[in-house]
Amino acid sequence: MSDGSISSSGDLLEFFRHHDRCRHWQISFTLQNLRDVRHRLSLDAEIERVGDSLLELHAMIKSNLYLKSRGAALRRTDDGVDHMPPKEGILILVEKERARRRIWTAARSTTAE
Asked: Which residues constitute the domain of residue 43?
């Protein structure tokens, strides 16, 4: 929040409580409205952050940058086997994220009409 952005549910309250210009603002939120706004900001930001991370990770896997960058961080267990991240599990999550975004985009375009 130090840069002035609102990125989490707690940031909205901090913004209204501590921002210099807030003293001059006349904002009439009911408690329920404020809770709804905070909840939605929190969920949307978290979902997008996770989704973006998954899609970025998928792109790295496809280009093999991920495997190269993880080369130095391989964990060698007692049996002497190098263990890489579970690529198949990540790809399943990526497909779920893509499906979620398609549904979300369709829902937004339907409500906009």
From this structure: 9-112
